[in-house]
Specification:
It is a single chain. The protein is an alpha/beta fold. The chain has one domain: Rossmann fold (3-Layer(aba) Sandwich), CATH 3.40.50. About 25% of the residues lie in helices and about 25% in strands. It has a 9-stranded mixed beta sheet, sandwiched between helices. A hairpin with a 4-residue loop joins strand 11 and strand 12. The N and C termini lie close together (about 10 Å).
Length: about 240
């Protein structure tokens, strides 16, 4: 979003959300929701979080935003990249997939700062023509990227020299991860910028964009390390000028 130079408001950061069956008080209904850690990370980094539910998709919503976060979540529907479902691919949300693909493509067209997290990196790759490994344990005979339900793993990632990822994180980083799928065929517009020791793609950047970065891990789960969110906010401030 291009604003008047005198506009010094905090950057508005859109964050995609889930539609899930939810309980509050006496009510049991489907609701748009998002773990608070995303909101806190954006706010502590200096931005204003704005929730984007996967309903009424309209890319013009990006006109009021200064940056975009594609949040993590459930498995991407294999039909999105013309694949048959693996037995371990479950609980997909085709409507959310389509919603996020529209927002990603519009954000890239507008050169809006973009941070794609976990599932977000996977959707980014698919939106640009890539595919996914549907179940990592078939490839690496390990569950280290998703140790057990609701338990985050710790993964050491090696970062490519000269990349934006390296400028933000250095040549190595220890990260929180929770995923059983990962990038397979890399979209032509993406450059891989970090991998785990087993070869799993852990970060990728969109060529030709100042800030369009996807990470396979969950940076919002480490409130002591807000470097990726701070970098997104900094890029979004530049977007305002």
């Amino acid at each position: 979003m291009v604003s008047n130079a005198s506009d010094h408001r905090r950057p508005r950061i859109g964050i995609t959300t889930y539609l899930e069956p939810t309980v509050w008080g006496v009510w049991q209904r489907e609701a748009a929701l998002l773990p608070r850690v995303y909101l806190d990370a954006v706010a502590k980094a200096g931005g204003v979080p704005i929730l984007l539910p996967p309903v009424g998709t309209d890319p013009s919503v990006l006109d009021i935003l200064d940056g975009l976060v594609i949040a993590g979540g459930c498995d991407v529907d294999p039909a999105t990249y013309d694949a048959a479902p693996h037995p371990e691919t479950v609980d997909t949300r085709p409507g959310r997939d389509a919603h996020e693909v529209v927002l990603i493509r519009a954000a890239l067209e507008a050169d809006l700062p973009l941070l794609a997290i976990c599932r977000g990196l996977q959707v980014l790759n698919v939106a640009l023509g890539g595919t996914l490994h549907q179940h990592l344990p078939d490839l690496i005979t390990s569950d280290e990227h998703r140790p057990s339900p609701a338990v985050f793993g710790r993964t050491e990632v090696k970062v490519e020299p000269g990349s934006l990822t390296e400028r933000l994180l250095g040549d190595r980083s220890s990260v929180h991860c929770y995923h059983h799928q990962a990038l397979d065929a890399i979209a032509p517009a993406l450059t891989v910028t970090a991998r785990a020791g087993d070869g799993t793609v852990e970060a990728a950047e969109v060529d030709g964009h100042a800030f369009a970065l996807g990470v396979q891990w969950h940076p919002e789960e480490n409130p002591e390390d807000l470097r990726l969110f701070t970098a997104l906010i900094d890029a979004s401030r530049r977007q305002q000028s």
